[in-house]
Amino acid sequence: MPVTVVVGTQWGDEGKGKLTDLFAQEMDVVVRYQGGHNAGHTIVVAGETFALQLVPSGILYPHITPVIGNGVVVEPATLFAELDMLGSRGVDTSKLLISGNAHVIMPYHLELDKVTERYLGKNSLGTTKRGIGPAYADKASRVGIRLQDLLDPKIFREKLDAVLKEKNAILAKVYNRLPLDSHEIVDLYLGDYAPRLAGLIGDTTSFLHQQLSQGKDILAEGAQATFLDLDHGTYPYVTSSNPTAGGACVGTGIGPRDITRIVGIAKAYVTRVGSGPFPTEVDGEVADILVERGNEFGTNTGRRRRPGWFDCVMARQAVRINSLSEIALTKLDVLDALESVKVCTGYRVGNDITDDVPYHQSTLHKVEPVYFELEGWKTDISKLTCLEEIPKQAKEYVQFLEDQVGVPVSLVGVGPGREQFVHFTK
To answer: Which residues are catalytic?
Structure first.
């Protein structure tokens, strides 16, 4: 299995970090292919919690070479803080390799992200205000600064002077903000950041292909999820990159024919953060149970996530878009406390019922979920280790989801720990 891709199938927070960490045991390289430090991947090992933002989840294994691909946007201060945190806890980070083609988040990206969200008011997109969107916008506009530019002071200064003139004009004239000082930025990025980054930056595309030619196994890790994808998500309430499986090729330089396995990560219910449509969203007592038992607060932001029932319409769309070979279901244990569980099997649109996600956003905002209700199991499954121990009702729930989405559920998570999962087969 040369390349395995791990992708979220909902609106993020499905537990990709845990599953990436789990799959990494059998890999040689783990490469992150898009997003930035707006992604939070939580891994629990022997009771110890690691919250990662930029560094690939496989870094906790000494045999893994962790790679940050060209599709990622990197905020150096956040990266260094994460590496220092890992180092202080005994994790070796010396093998980390970062693409020289990855773009850098600059101070003006952070400032523009903050003021733009405030300016939008009630129409805000719910971004994390980490500069991710403005950095990707500059990349598309071809005025972005890449990590390799930090290794050439002359080029860095030229690019910074050109773009900062425009950014400062926008900040001052549109948002009434003070201009940013180019000398301070140069001192910080070339004086503080560049020397430390120099030993990490390289040609990651060539490295990955060298690994493939040697028969090594690679795991490509996405951030966010299918319905936050810039093209296929609930636009405009999306991220600024392509978390879907196709983004793994663009964000790493690995070709499609090298990918042999695509694992979709799905939570046993659904959550999303920020604004945007959410057909199966619930409130009241059920919402509180899901949030409290699932610890549904953002790893980076601390924001409470919006909870809802599992949505098979979304899941089927994710299967198609990503060509999923299987699904790994997480947080089944969160549903332990419920008398019954609901599953959305279709959407009611006026007098019609559809099995597909409506292409028009106005329609999606108005759909009514069609539910199928199953009996709950009211049993603590967090300590179970094999399929035979799983309660009958919990098995039926998983099998129902499997039948609805059309691909097998390969394993089920029953807790946050690395070892808390059960291989699932009928």
So the answer is: 13, 41
